[in-house]
Structure formats: structure tokens, C-alpha cells
Design goal:
Elements: H1 13-24, H2 28-37, H3 43-50, E1 64-72, E2 75-82, H4 88-100, E3 106-109, E4 114-121, H5 126-142, H6 145-153, E5 157-165, E6 173-181, H7 188-208, E7 215-222, E8 229-237, H8 249-265, H9 267-287, H10 292-303, E9 313-318, E10 321-329, H11 343-351, H12 357-379, H13 384-399, H14 404-413, H15 421-433
Antiparallel strand pairs: 1-2, 3-8, 4-6, 4-7, 5-6, 8-10, 9-10
Helix pairs in contact: 1-2, 4-12, 5-7, 8-9, 9-10, 9-12, 13-15
């Protein structure tokens, strides 16, 4: 393989494409054609996308779909989903319609606190460190005023700073554990800027106080936000719960509750159960330009907060009323980052009515709960494969380059049958032979 001696990042975009094609593909011309196929014809728009990351070659498309008819706290929404998995949007839409006829979704913001930490090592006397922290705390706040003043005008800022002793877990390890309110921004840059200033102030003033052994390790926000949580829930009389003629409403409710309890006690099931929730959450987080990796990490840490990985959603029946709910940590923003840059992010947010960060938390949580309800409903009644494979059928047909006429025949054939990849391919091949 030919090495790029001048540094790949210094090449022009076309030079990068040519280098990749020549050094990694048996058919360089075809590789270049694929990359150009996904290039935007609008040069200004393409330049905008190119500058989101480094070493950009082209665009990688994912479908942007919508799930209409969501009623959340009495307000109607059409929710954008960016996802590649078949049946997710259809399932969410079906759940939205089901619960829309039963009062819709209700949400509650349980907290909006975000967290950042300065991690440091200290080998001296603990009591002297405590005295120093009490001395330096006002300076930590005053020397970040230039950073926090605009956030404070919007009602946010630094909530508190605490000295945390972690020496029982790691020798000489301490933290400056800080809580923040960031209003409608996700706040990563704001939090990290404050923390880095804390570290400088904390280190610089320690010498004057007679402390000489503080070693700053790092300053960084945490994506674990157990106090930035939203609850989404639905409820109705058990008698109104099910529309499946093959099972009574009571049987369905009890089976549904058992399925949730299994996810509460069995980690192998809980991971897949929560993955279904994240199908809805991640799709809306992506559509609105937020960081789905941070959300994923924080959500799964939250699912393990009591020492065992468990279900994020819960259900109960009391006095004939079925209630299904979800508590989920979501650190989201509706200003800053991609929300001001990506045209489809701006489109998605406007379609949602330009929500605040807390309203977006509510919408995203509802998408996760709807997806979870739809999956559990299928699992406990008809089974998940019948509906999923019907939605996946078109992907299989496209993969095998089926014509329009072939698609019509195959789809009609599997209308009342459970489709699998092998069965579809076999039927398509027999159709072509005949």
C-alpha cells in the first residue's frame, strides 16, 4: 500500500478520495463514483457538511422519517426519526395512535441538573485540604464569572461545588464535583470551560495556602446525569387496553406486566428491552442534532445505578388502572452545536414547534416509551417477527433487485405469512424460474 508521506489531512478533498480509491479498492473508479453519488450538488451546503468533521469524503445518508399523531400533555406533535432500522417508525406511530385515543402521553421533568468534575491527586493532610477548599471556593466562583455571566442571564449557571473524597476507591484521589444548570443548551463547552478555570484557580492558590502536593489530572463534564431526568407515562382502565381479539384485555395486561418484570430482574432481557427504548430515543436525538453517544452512555449507566442492570420502564395495575412509565436521564440542547448549523436539524426542531430543552426531553422520552410499548405489545401477542419482517421485506427485495411487478407478487404472497430472508429469496427465485 502506498503511504501518504505529506500527511493525509493536508490533501485536498479530491486528493483524499483518489488516495483512498487507489490504495484500498480493487476498482478505484467505482469507489470514486459511489462517493460522488452521495455528494450534495449545492456546493455551499456540501461545504457546510464537510466542515462538521475532519477528512470528509462525502455524505452518509440515513432516512429521516416522521411519526405523527403523538399527544403529549394535551399537545399534538409529529416527531422526526432518523434511523435505518425497519419497523421503528411504524411501531411508534401505531403506539401514538393507540394512546392518543386514551388520553395521550403525560410527562414530568424530575430534574435538569448536569455534572462536571475536576479530578486531582493529593497526598497531604485531609483536614488541611478541606480548609483549603472552604477558602478557595469563593475564588472558584468569582474567577469563572466571565464564563458564566451569559448563562446566568438565561437563568442557568453553577449550582454548587463540592469537595469529594474518593481515596477509599483510589489512593490520593479527590474531586471537585460541580453541578450546573444550562437551560436550553446541552452545555458541554460551557461546563468544560468552567471546570478548566476551576482547575487553574484551585492549583494556583494552593501554594499560597501552604499546600504543595495537588496534582490536577483532568477536568471534564460527566455524561452520567442522574438528576437530569424526565418521566413519560401512559395509563388507562385495563378494560380499554387491548384491541387484539385473540387475547382479553386482562390477560394482555397481566402478560405485559410480567414481561416488564422479567426485564427488571434479568439483565440479558433488560439490555434488549432497553435497546428497544433507545430505538425511539436515539432516532429523535439524531434528528434534533444532539449527541446520541452521550445519551446512550448516560442512559445505560442510569439503568445500572443500583448495582444491577435493569429495565428503564415499569408497569403496574392498581384499582383496575394500567400504568406504564419510563424514567430516563436526557441531557439535551436546542441551541448551539448542530442545532444552529444543520438544515435538517433546524427543520426537525421547527416541526416540533422549536421546543425548549426540557420540552425536547419530554418528546424524546415519549418516543422511547412508545417504542417500548409497541415492542412489548408485539412480543406478548403476535410475536415481534411477523410485523418486523413485513417491514423488512422491502429491504430484502431491494437487495435482490426485484422489479416492481415482482415486489407486488412477493408482498401479496407474504401478506398473511411470516416472512424470513430465506423464504423470501426462495419464493423470489421460484417466481423468476416460472
Amino acid at each position: 500500500m502506498t503511504q501518504n508521506k505529506i500527511g493525509f489531512s493536508k490533501l485536498t478533498k479530491e486528493e483524499k478520495i483518489n488516495w483512498i480509491a487507489q490504495n484500498h479498492f480493487a476498482n478505484p473508479k467505482q469507489a470514486i463514483e459511489v462517493l460522488h453519488q452521495y455528494k450534495n450538488s449545492d456546493e455551499a451546503l456540501q461545504k457546510l457538511h464537510d466542515e462538521f468533521i475532519e477528512n470528509t469524503l462525502t455524505n452518509f445518508y440515513l432516512p429521516l422519517g416522521v411519526a405523527p399523531n403523538f399527544t403529549i400533555n394535551g399537545k399534538n406533535y409529529t416527531i422526526p426519526f432518523v434511523i435505518e432500522e425497519s419497523s421503528v417508525v411504524a411501531a411508534a406511530s401505531k403506539a401514538a395512535k393507540f394512546w392518543g385515543a386514551r388520553g395521550g402521553f403525560k410527562t414530568t421533568i424530575l430534574g435538569t441538573e448536569k455534572i462536571g468534575q475536576v479530578h486531582f491527586m493529593y497526598e497531604g493532610d485531609k483536614q488541611k485540604l478541606i480548609e483549603y477548599f472552604n477558602f478557595v471556593k469563593p475564588f472558584l466562583l468569582s474567577e469563572t464569572e466571565d464564563i458564566t455571566k451569559n448563562m446566568q442571564k438565561r437563568g442557568g449557571g453553577i449550582s454548587d461545588i463540592q469537595l469529594v473524597d474518593k481515596t477509599d476507591a483510589l489512593e490520593n484521589y479527590y474531586q471537585l464535583h460541580t453541578t450546573f444548570q444550562t437551560k436550553d443548551s446541552m452545555g458541554a463547552n460551557f461546563i468544560n470551560s468552567c471546570l478548566e478555570q476551576f482547575a487553574k484557580t484551585f492549583k494556583n492558590k494552593s501554594e499560597d495556602f501552604g499546600i504543595h502536593s495537588i496534582q490536577i489530572v483532568m477536568s471534564i463534564l460527566s455524561n452520567f446525569v442522574p438528576n437530569c431526568v424526565v418521566r413519560a407515562e401512559v395509563s388507562c382502565p385495563v378494560s380499554e387496553l387491548n384491541e387484539d381479539k385473540n387475547i382479553t384485555a386482562t390477560e394482555f395486561a397481566e402478560k405485559f406486566l410480567t414481561a416488564v418484570k422479567i426485564a427488571e430482574v434479568e439483565p440479558y432481557r433488560a439490555v434488549t428491552h432497553n435497546k428497544g427504548i433507545m430505538n425511539g430515543i436515539d432516532a429523535v436525538v439524531l434528528a434534533t442534532g444532539n449527541d446520541f453517544r452521550a445519551v446512550e452512555a448516560g442512559v445505560h449507566a442510569y439503568a445500572s445505578k443500583d448495582g444491577k442492570y435493569t429495565s428503564l420502564s415499569h408497569a403496574k395495575i392498581e384499582n383496575g388502572i394500567f400504568t406504564f412509565w419510563l424514567d430516563v436521564p436526557l441531557a439535551l440542547g436546542t441551541v448551539g452545536g448542530l442545532t444552529n448549523l444543520h438544515p435538517l436539524v433546524k427543520f426537525s426542531l421547527e416541526m416540533l414547534g422549536n421546543p425548549s430543552a426540557t420540552e425536547l426531553m419530554e418528546i424524546v422520552a415519549v418516543a422511547g416509551l412508545a417504542q417500548n410499548f409497541a415492542a412489548l405489545r408485539s412480543l406478548t401477542t403476535s410475536g415481534i417477527q411477523q410485523g418486523h419482517m413485513k417491514m423488512h421485506l422491502n429491504n430484502i427485495l431491494n437487495q435482490h433487485q426485484a422489479t416492481k411487478e415482482e415486489k407486488q407478487i412477493v408482498i401479496a404472497y407474504f401478506e398473511d405469512k411470516t416472512a424470513s430472508h430465506n423464504l423470501v429469496v426462495d419464493f423470489l427465485e421460484s417466481l423468476r424460474k416460472n
